[in-house]
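note to self: dont lose this again. the chain is below, predicted strucutre after it. 275 aa total, dont forget to put it in the shared folder this time
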Amino acid sequence: MPILKLDDCEIYYEEHGEGPPLFFVAGLGGVGSYWQPQIAYFSKFFRVIVHDHRGTGRSTKSKIRYSLEQMAADTIGIMDALAIDSAIVVGHSTGGAIAQILCLEHPNRVQAAVMYATWTKADTFFKRCFEVRRTLLKAGPTDYVRGGSIFLQPSWWIRDAPDIEDTTVYGDSFDPDIVDSRIQALLEFDRTADLSRIATPVLVIGVENDHLTPIYYSRAIADAIPGAELATMKDGAHVASQIFSDEFNEIVHDFILKQERILLGSWASEKAAHP
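---
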């Protein structure tokens, strides 16, 4: 297995394709397998990197007090270990919050950022969602995964595939205590006052029927970041990049292609054109 050794843990990662580095950062579940539809598409044009967050998947199950800043620091540690000076960063949910921190604290490491189905800070709605998810977590992993689908997937998707338990979101197994600590980290996250300082090119993607991070969060982030673009998807709920991957991939790829400076140099621009 490809493993990177950071100071106090081991991180599972994968690389696919070649070209400008494109770093996909997963959400609360933390596993790189979430991005399977994006790996297949973007590795034709870019050097795609995904990883399992510390505490998730095949990475070290560290018993620490998690924070979004710690998760962002691990992301920088991975970039350092892979000799990546800067990259395009695409973050989903928790990964989108990590992208906010990277743009603020490490702007020279982020060439452009996509913040997808993410949030600003924990408001009353967000807190109640995670009160329910914590209750499910206490009931056990099976209840957490099955009950969690209500927050992640569209109603029609659950109706048509009632018995599917998707390991691409959570991995094959997880530690409930670590998940609980990671949830607490989400509830404590708030960089709303700093968003106006972001100078990195940013695309915000919101989904109209997202039950967990409603589209008003995406609108608020796009309004707060100078020059940020906002794209909306009508369907797919919190995991729209999986359910409507073609639409999602096209939105992200079109944004990246606008950032011409990223594609300069030895990487021929025609290689990055749509097939």
